[in-house]
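User: Predict the structure for this protein chain, please.
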Amino acid sequence: MKLRKLASCLIGASLLTASLTVPFGNQVAVPYTANAVSISDFPSDYQYAADWIWQNRIEKEQSTARWNTIFDQIIAGKGTINYVVRWQSYKTITLEQRQKLETMLETCYNDWNKWLAGYENWPYEHIDVNIVGWAVLDKSVLLDLQPDEIVYDNLISDYDSSYDTSNGIETIPDKLSSAPSELSRFDHFTDKSYQYPGGQDKRFDMYLWATQGFPSIGGCGGDWGQRLSDDAYINMLDGMGIHVLEHEIGHGFGMTDFYGGEGESDGFPPGGFPGNGTSIMMAGSSAEITDFDGWFMRYMWTKIKDEPERFDLSEPVESTSETTTTTTTTTTTTTTTVTTTEPVVIPPDSIEFTKTDSNKWIFNADNAQYAELTFRGTQGGGISGNLNGIAWDTQQMSADVVTVRVELPENTYESVIERTYSGIWSNEIGDMTDMESELISIKLIEREASPTEILYGDVNNDGKVEIADVVALASYVGAAENNPIDTQGMINGDVQNKGDGLTVGDVLAIQQYLADIVSSLPV
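Assistant: Here is the predicted structure, written as structure tokens:
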């Protein structure tokens, strides 16, 4: 499978000419307070489109599989995102503009975060965004440089600007500056024990990459950062085209572009987008985050938040449910034992894998639930392949090492990793050209123990199903924040359309069960 070049997302990422009229220079960040909501509140008319995007785009493209999405970065940073601005430009930027840039970034993040605040254990009402350094070609471009501003002017020796797409007017600089790798989360996120020199606050999560000569009508983004032209960022300080940056930040969360047509492999859901029919992630259709975009952001969080070992929600978390390692409930009619064990991680240095030819490796997956594959040699391009036929794909990588996570079916043992493509875009030939990449490690995460029978309907976990469970569930549905139900109660109470969370339908189903209208639960 051929991969898009880095600049391919230029077309469409900001075709809109509409602009916002509110300037950002004097804005003050105000924490957003939302009503407590859950997936059970998900609009029913949004469900089909959300499921289609998740199944046909996000899962297939593995866009949330790497544990470095902006969801991961915010939680690892305890509600903060740190940037280094990569100013690949010889144009000057004033102190006031630099200060506005940080404020504008924080506005963009909280336009997304207001949909997460108060939703299903998301712990932050407001995201603090900090610019912790500037990587520049020449320090003199930073006018009125302050003593506390950190500047990096070390240049990458092998940078080749011929791979970039120019606006046809200016020449893209043939030099690129960088911040120290030891401070980069992108370079170290796979190592949870890694200690940043100077502490967590000294890290940077992403680059805000401004390039002189870059096309002014587009950009690209991912978990490495966002790249636009220098002029585009400066124009945004006056409110022009901020939706372009919010679109690129959306990619960092794992959201996809919608380049293709209705129902196509790179397209949008059959029937289009519900709500007002647009999405900020479909270039040219919306100049703001739509209601569907916000709900789909929540949907994504619901999908990934409980992945074993992925998120540390211990501080701070205002949760409406209890998290326990083992819950045992005994009843006179059914014995219910649900055991949730911490997943065992089998480290890479204990897993043997053998290369069988230039593009294939074999190993024993040992019935693991996940396999994490780490490749080296992908910088500037991408790599795709499959594991026992399960496809994975990475692209537009700014680092030389990339890790992909693949969920494995039960009873997976002898396994074959096949690399189907490894390449980088070449402007010279106008197509992808092959590049070297190599599998360097495999990490396995063991499968969790499966629960035994559950006493459905026993919402309060007292070992029996009775009217008290109906009252508890109805109270939760009406005001979840004031009437919490623990984790096991949520499992027991999800008895109608299992998997859609706790709703009025579950209340009715338990009532029908107690009245002998239905003979068993779940319905």
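The longest strand covers residues 414-426.
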